[in-house]
Amino acid sequence: MFKTIKSDLPASIVVFFVALPLCLGIALASGAPLFSGLIAGIIGGVVVGALSGSKIGVSGPAAGLAAIVLSAIGTLGGYENFLVAVVLGGIIQLIFGFLKAGVIGYYFPSSVIKGMLTGIGIIIILKQIPHFFGYDSEPEGADSFLGASGENTFSAILNIVDNITVGSMVIGMIGLAILLLWDKVLSKKGKIFQLIQGPLVAVVIGIIFFSLTQSSESLAISQSHLVSVPIPDDVESFLGQFSFPNFSAITNPDVWIVAFTIALVASLETLLCVEATDKLDPEKNVTPTNRELLAQGTGNIFSGMVGGLPITQVIVRSSANIQSGGRSKASAIIHGFLLLISVILIPRLLNMIPLSVLAAILFIVGFKLAKPKLFKQMYQMGWKQFVPFVVTVAGIVFIDLLWGIGLGLAVGIVVILLKSYQNSHFLHIVDESNGKHKIKMTLAEEVTFFNKGAILKELDSLPRDTFLELDVRKTRYLDNDIIEILDDFAFKAKERNIDIQLVSERGIVKNPESFIEFFKLRPKSA
């Protein structure tokens, strides 16, 4: 792990600057104490990072759970009661891991995963535009179309015109220029520019700008446009920010319902993020999904025990890690320690960072996730790939992450069914003999109940006085539903003067009396 520290340390600093506002913003959007987001970020980095089998995945509080958390805190009668659900959700995730439920992640189509990455990239850019110009009506980390303030993604952008903070906009543009210069030019000039990352320089310049312009009427940046880390007065007040679960609420059925909801949603988000992260990984590592569920479950138990939000692996942090050159899990772990050390030692310095500079950093992350050329590539792959991809992107942008993935998956399943319907068999007229059309139908390698409609339609459309050759030599799986259709057709064929010749690996059978009996020796197989 330490062999790649030259790459991991700079990457961890970038991930730290990406994670810091997101941890605080997600906590604010969840209606939870601000410190709870930082706890989840620290545990996601240190605990989950150490236990995970992913080399470049980074975990922390997830925006996709914010609405669930906000509702659950009210339903369960307080944050301490909610923490019980977080701990139980972690235990349920451990059970998922032991039951090897991680395999579910492999069943999401590639088009949906790519759509998820692109949609998240677009929503990152759209959501950061107001922050870039100093309009902070929504907290950092929000990802749903409709915000808590009543604005949606696009109305917030339109309202920028009347709410521009000049100082935020100026330092945001300076920060973006530094990032682009570092990414496109300086990073290729020498190792020093790879070791010292552009985001770190942009943040330092942002702090200096804030300090120098505090007395300026036009360029001063107010506290509402800066990072807002809780600042304790002493050790006792720092420790007082931790909350602990009220286990007397464990008998409340609603606590268990929330726990299962957290476990299911957090596990699904994690597995999807694992799939997406592995696709982005330049070294093409494959993350063990069951181990990831065990790591996430352990992290949620720890987080719930000390007052943190639920944790998942998060694609924004993970992609920032990859883009910054992270090579091993050291970068995720170090970012967790950076969060811990900074909130203890330098919270006042952190609170001098303009949100517009962090928005500029997230612009770069978002653009690299949602490159325009990907739309062209997906279009060239055909509509069966392009439609689920676009639906996923649209769902994420206009609703939220989980809806986008769900809609994309639903469309993907419909596409699979259509493809299966079309590819169940191959039919062509061979020749004419004895006054009968000779038609050959070759069944596919696997024929299931999905293919019932296509095959039934084809058989019913055969004209009278036909010679049908049914070839099942390549068929390895034949569903009972299809066998029953063939059996019924054998009966009707006599009335329509249709001769059937069944060709299989076991020989040729003319006008079989019963397809059910023929396939009885080898059920569901030809």
Task: Please give a structural write-up.
This protein is α/β, with parallel strands linked by helices. It has two domains: 2-104 and 178-368, no CATH class; 423-518, 2-Layer Sandwich (Transcription Regulator spoIIAA), CATH 3.30.750. 59% of the residues lie in helices and 8% in strands. The chain has a five-stranded mixed beta sheet with strand order 3-4-6-8-9, covered by helices on one side. A two-stranded antiparallel sheet has the order 1-2. Strand 8 and strand 9 form a beta hairpin. Helix 2 (34-51) packs antiparallel against helix 12 (289-305), helix 4 (79-98) packs across helix 11 and helix 11 (253-280) runs parallel beside helix 13. The two termini are 52 Å apart. The mean pLDDT is 86.
In short:
The protein is α/β, with parallel strands linked by helices.
Overall average pLDDT: 86
Nearest-angstrom radius of gyration? 29 Å
Helix percentage: 55-70%
Annotation, overall tally of beta strands: 9
Read across the widest sheet, the strand sequence of neighbours is 3-4-6-8-9
Secondary structure class reads alpha/beta
- Termini distance? 52 Å
Biggest pleated-sheet summary: 5 strands, mixed
List the helices and strands and how they pair.
Layout (H helix, E strand, L loop, with lengths): L4 H25 L4 H18 L7 E3 L4 H10 L3 H20 L11 H23 L20 H6 L7 H19 L7 H4 L2 H15 L22 H5 L13 H28 L8 H17 L5 E3 L1 H9 L6 H16 L1 H4 L4 H15 L2 H9 L2 H16 L2 H22 L2 E9 L2 E8 L2 E2 L4 H9 L5 E6 L5 E2 L1 H16 L3 E6 L2 E4 L4 H4 L8
Parallel strand pairs: 4-6, 5-7, 6-8
Antiparallel strand pairs: 1-2, 3-4, 8-9
Helix pairs in contact: 1-2, 1-13, 1-14, 2-12, 2-14, 4-11, 4-12, 5-11, 5-16, 5-18, 5-19, 7-9, 7-16, 11-12, 11-13, 13-16, 17-18, 18-19, 20-21
